[in-house]
Amino acid sequence: MTRHAIEIRELRKTYAAQAGEPPKEALKGIDLDIPAGSVFGLLGPNGAGKSTLINILAGLVLKTSGKVSIWGFDQDVNPRQSRASIGVMPQELNLDPFFPPRAALEVQAGLYGVPKSQRRTDEILEMIGLSDKANAYARTLSGGMRRRLLLGKALVHHPQVLVLDEPTAGVDIELRQMLWENVRRLNAERGTTIILTTHYLEEAEEMCDEIAIINHGSVIARDSTANLLGKLDTKCMVIQPDTPPERLPQGPGLEVETRKDGALAISYHALTTSAEDVLGAVRAAGITIRDVRTEQADLEDVFLKLTRSANAA
Ligand code: ADP
Ligand code: MG
User: Fold this and answer.
1) Beta 234-241 vs 264-269: how paired, if at all?
2) What is the pTM of this model?
3) Residue 118 and residue 114: Cα distance in Å, rounded?
4) Would the CB of 72 count as within 6 Å of ligand 1?
5) Is the domain defined by 233-296 classed in CATH 3.30.70?
6) Which end of the chain has fewer CB within 10 Å, C or N?
7) What's the pLDDT tens digit per position in 259-303?
């Protein structure tokens, strides 16, 4: 049996009405298990509810209803243990401008009740590449250094689960690579479960073993990265036949739809079927092609499609 680092049941969040704005239902009943030891991606467009979910896990936002367990500890029953099991690198830069990196890490460790003998401040400074800035004024740190310090702060209490909310949004390539290296190492060497949010498909693809796609406050897909990409690599070839066809093209993995204008829209998976296979099936059906073009789904289309199929199910 796989142990779950995180278990979420029927999780709902409605933000209270604000001046001129109606209440906002940000999470609409999320059920999600995240396997221990995985690198797990929460993928979704802006406004989907990713940060809300993360911030509830972190104890920064109060849920409206539902159940959350972290490392086996129910947030409501064992708030202290559940909080001790998770470290969060938030999306927003919320650093106290007065503390240099070393002091900021020490204060954070103190907040989490980590005894002096168990602190790894130097090791963390080294890991986030801030050893030589350990005592520099926070306001002299660049944006990239501040984000690295946020990562360090998330690690002071040796959490089993590390959550990164949009870790690479607006971050330069060098920092991105350093972040990924660190995260991979934590996962490989310490077995730390990693959860990251992103609105970039490629990022999730590169980093994550498993992905959940969230849109408008609901999980609309949840699968291994390989399976999900299989679903997402759908391409569509649109054939305008010379005369209305007597037979439709057939073949493994082909889905054919006749459009109003008589065009045949043939969907296929680019990983397993080539354009040549599709054209072959069209010719085999005795169809003469007058015109042909391809359509490729972008992430927005994919979200829409998955949302529609989720609604239909
Ligand atoms: P994501 O991180 O996926 O971009 P968020 O969780 O930040 O999404 O936001 C989900 C929805 O909840 C959005 O419509 C957002 O405007 C709304 N929202 C987020 N935080 C608040 C808040 N503090 N008060 C009211 N609405 C909020
Ligand atoms: Mg967010």
Assistant:
1) antiparallel
2) 0.79
3) 6
4) no
5) yes
6) N
7) 999 999 998 888 788 999 999 999 999 999 999 998 765 555 566
**Distance from the alpha carbon of residue 25 to the mean position of ligand 1, in angstroms:** 9
Task: Give per-residue pLDDT as tens, 17-46.
Answer: 988 889 999 999 999 999 999 999 999 888
Which of 3.40.630.30, 3.40.190.170, 3.30.420.10, 3.40.50.300 would CATH assign to domain 4-85+159-229?
3.40.50.300
Tell me the C-alpha distance between 177 and 180, whole Å: 5
Say if CB 3 and CB 36 are below 8 A apart.
Answer: yes
Instruction: Say if ligand 1 is within 6 A of residue 198 CB.
Output: no
Smallest CA-to-CA distance from 59 within 72, 48, 75, 71 is with 75
Is the CB of 215 inside a 6 Å radius of any atom of ligand 1? no
Domain locations in the chain as residue ranges: 4-85+159-229, 233-296
Name the residue of 15, 63, 92 whose CB sits within 8 Å of the most ligand 1 atoms, as the mutation to test its pocket.
Answer: 15
Q: Which amino acid is at 233?
A: D
34 CA from centroid of ligand 1 (Å): 22
Q: Whose CA is nearest to atom 23 of ligand 1?
A: 15
